[in-house]
Design goal:
Strand order of the largest sheet: 1-2-3
Structural class: mainly alpha
Oligomer: single chain
Radius of gyration: 24 Å
Shape: flat
Number of strands: 3
């Protein structure tokens, strides 16, 4: 080996320079799996957290980060449902922090990955602290809503990160101005619908403390009619969203949108339809916990697909760029 040369170990896109002072790096292909893991766990933790609430296990462990003074709690169903969610949250945190740190070790360097990756790492730490505050404040509905919406914000970073690891930097898959603007309007309106849904849930009967006998304050802004009013508001808003989504899908099909956007809009239409069915079933069957759990968890998938549709539609800058003029052929 020549003087000053450094031995390097490589395996599956990972590189470990052996020389002293050298650093660990990994390929974009290897980092892609880290991004996938972060996004998948972020979706699953919404299902897990909703399960804690809908089983009435929200205060199964009344202290945080331990559980009643121990990290090996007693064998009780509600205790382990809540504590199991905390353990899974640790896995989510590890995946997101890994995505944030390892983005800086990707070679060749991809600067477009750094911001969403850093947001993942910082956001998941904030989410852990907010989860502890939720327990400390006895499942206050205001903090529970903030906890849920922060999960939605993390899904934005996760979805954008996965999109970017799958596409070269600066890639604009579609530049139709109408579709870009319409898709963004749909996504923003979808966010409003999801927020409205959190308030409807905050007024509902599933506060998270039923299994442990804890009485949790509910949203009661307009007295006995609060829940019905919020459900109707959320339901009508969601219906309008479904109509707009189908209309946008038809326009995109007519304008021959590229495959990523069509796939995203198709998934949005299907998920909004599924949510509508679940919403009607739960409303007319006195809000059974199992149906409410699905209805409260599926927005994680819907929101991820909405964000995916946003980035798949392209950018307004790309939409405004004129197409290159055809080359002029001159006779010899």
């Amino acid at each position: 080996m020549p003087a000053g040369a450094t031995r390097v170990l490589t395996a599956r896109g990972l590189t470990w320079p052996v020389g002293m002072g050298d650093r660990f790096t990994l390929s974009l292909r290897a980092y892609r799996w880290v991004a996938y893991a972060a996004l998948l766990t972020l979706v699953l933790i919404v299902f897990s957290g909703a399960g804690v609430r809908l089983t009435g296990s929200g205060l199964g462990c009344p202290s945080w980060p331990d559980c009643s003074g121990t990290f090996v709690p007693e064998l009780d169903t509600h205790v382990w449902i809540e504590y199991g969610n905390r353990l899974f949250s640790t896995l989510v945190g590890a995946a997101c922090v890994a995505a944030g740190v390892l983005a800086y070790r990707v070679r060749p360097r991809r600067h477009d990955l750094l911001r969403p990756a850093a947001l993942l790492a910082a956001g998941v730490i904030a989410q852990g602290l907010l989860g502890g505050l939720t327990v400390a404040l006895h499942l206050s509905w205001q903090v529970v809503i903030a906890h849920y919406l922060l999960s939605m914000a993390l899904l934005v970073a996760g979805a954008v990160l996965v999109w970017r690891v799958r596409h070269p930097p600066g890639a604009a898959p579609f530049g139709d101005r109408l579709l870009v603007v319409a898709t963004r309007v749909l996504v923003v309106y979808g966010a409003v619908v999801i927020v409205a849904g959190t308030f409807a849930t905050a007024a509902g009967p599933h506060a998270g403390g039923a299994g442990t006998g804890d009485v949790v304050e509910r949203l009661d802004a307009w007295g006995a009619g609060t829940l019905r009013s919020l459900i109707l508001l959320h339901g009508h808003m969601a219906t309008a969203m479904g109509i707009v989504a189908v209309a946008l899908w038809a326009v995109a099909l007519h304008r021959r949108a590229r495959r990523p956007l069509m796939e995203g809009l198709t998934a949005v239409c299907m998920l909004v339809a599924a949510q509508g069915i679940l919403g009607l079933v739960q409303y007319h069957s006195a809000l059974p916990a199992e149906i409410v759990w699905l209805h409260a968890s599926l927005p994680a998938v819907l929101w991820t697909v909405l964000v995916w549709s946003w980035v798949a539609a392209g950018s307004l800058a790309a939409a405004s760029e004129p197409e290159p003029a055809p080359a002029r052929v001159t006779a010899a």
